[in-house]
Amino acid sequence: MTNWKALVGSLYAQQYGAAERFGEPGLSLPPNPPAAEAAVEAAEQRLGVCFDAAFREFLRVCDGWPRFGRIQLFGCGDLAAGEKWRRDSTFANEYFATQASAASDVPDGYRRVLVGKAGLSQRFIVMMVPTHPVGGVSACWDCMGGIDLRYPDFGVWAEHEAATIAYALDEEIADRRCLR
Fold first, then answer.
1. 3-state SS, residue 130
2. Can you give the pLDDT at residue 137?
3. pLDDT grade, residue 79 (50/70/90)?
4. Residue 160 has pLDDT above 60, yes or no
5. What separation in angstroms does the CA of 55 have from each of 30, 44, 138?
């Protein structure tokens, strides 16, 4: 299981350090404060789903994050309620109806939920979650331009993405050192 406090703390420290070093504060926006259990339950009720343990724990550590690398991870107040979430969710639904691979089909008793979106790109993060507490598996897709990468849950996706972000920041720092 993902150690969310460690992952969030480490990634934010890396992003903050890079933003300071580059003089670009926009590279680092802090994660949102933790969500209360009532907020998590309200989001589940609005969506008609039951979040898996990994996503629930993420929300209990940080209720979304405006800048997880280049991705905005939505918090409880955004899910099925925020205007940006609604627009981005409409796009994601159109994508799944027209471009997604058959591997991204959702079985009965599950629903797709948009949990993250990259700024200007066509990249979004979608979870498949049960519509009732069945103890079933969830999945997380990282979708961009017709490529759908499937992860067993949100935690596995977040760990992979955090490692990718950390690597990219290290490379950017190294590149900028070479240019001096």
1. strand
2. 72
3. very high
4. yes
5. 18, 11, 10
